[in-house]
Amino acid sequence: MPTQPLPRTLDPALSRTPATPAMSEPAGWHQSWWRIVDIRIGIIPLPIYIGLLALIAGFVWTGKVPSDLLMSIVLLAMGGFTCAEIGKRLPILRNIGAAAILATFIPSALAYYHWLPQPILTSVIDFTKASNFLYLFIASIIVGSILGMDRQVLIAGFVKIFIPLAAGTVMAGIVGTAVGTLLGMGAWHTFFFVVVPIMAGGVGEGAIPLSIGYSTILGLPQGDMFAQVLPPVMLGSLTAIIASGILNFVGKKYPGLTGEGRLQPGARGDVEHPGRNPENPEAKGVVTVDTQTVAAAVITAVTLYLVGVLVQRLFEFPAPVTMLALAVVLKLGRLVSPGLEAGAHRVYKFFQVAVTYPLLFAIGVALTPWDKLMAAFHLANIITIVSTVLTLMFTGFVVGRWLKMYPIETAIINACHSGQGGTGDVAILTAANRMQLMPFAQIATRIGGAIVVTVTLIALPRFL
Description:
mainly alpha; 2 strands; 1% strand
């Protein structure tokens, strides 16, 4: 009688178990049906996908789509994985991050042109703005990737990464300003309203404080200032996403240039978690990851983030940076057990696989204004923005190689310096298939952006 193999776990380590005799399964239509069930749109089985389409249509027909957690999981998963699957099937473009680009910018266009039914649009926007689940994602990715990282790589990487980042910032400022000046936009306008916003750290931490500072110093309405600095942020982030996707493709052609998420040669990027050996559960060096440990890791990540929120409220220091620093201290001080490290790593992998594209869909609908992105599309602006981002990344590539780091990884981290804040980091690292670089991306975005904004607002009065 035909047999059906036992399903393989997503974690290769857990599949290293003694061979188990396959269970006998019914023949005939069952196996044909199972083959259909195993077809997936992202992580969604095809029959469930079709059923969910019908359910969503039914809710839209009633005139109200709930904004609760259960409906939001369905809407974001359907939208995010549908856009990602389209991107993964586009010739050529699938190799340069089309899945992440489409999952972010198609929803933005759909929302702007009202091609999404209003009940769905309202549900997604309400949930995204009320739940703040972007920061649950970032907390899980940062804490999981840091605790799951090789300790020596972490030490060396955090010390070294500031060098290509600083060099890239200076060179991008020089080249971007020169290009904009040559194209007739003027050095002053190019630097303060095009180049600086690109590297300011996104919208919330970059464009908004920058526009407030400009408004105070120049005596102009803050809304007008924000309208000018936001388009370069959006187009710079899009450029960084595409360029990082191209670097991922280059890394597959020239593997010597990349560590596939590791910053430096000669060390592992992640901790290995082989799981339990059924024949010898007490084997030395084996780390067991059970459900309770994974739950403990989630609580640990959330706790670190909330500490960061309290610090931000008291001292106005960015919450993600505080969370990142605390996670590094825990790792370097060996203050968490190997089991909890393994649990955090498992949480990181879950969010990377199951949450990334739904999150990008939510970002596109609720947080990415399509009209502001389109406003940046005139030739001089495009050339200046692209020149700035590529200079930033190329400098990171060259300096990273000089420092004996993997140049593709350092270039991608520098790309995050020109991204749309935390949302840009997610899109850039997804396009590059290197989500484990999130801790270093946060350094580039948060710390790098804060330094750029601070120095700019100090320098602006001297150029008036």
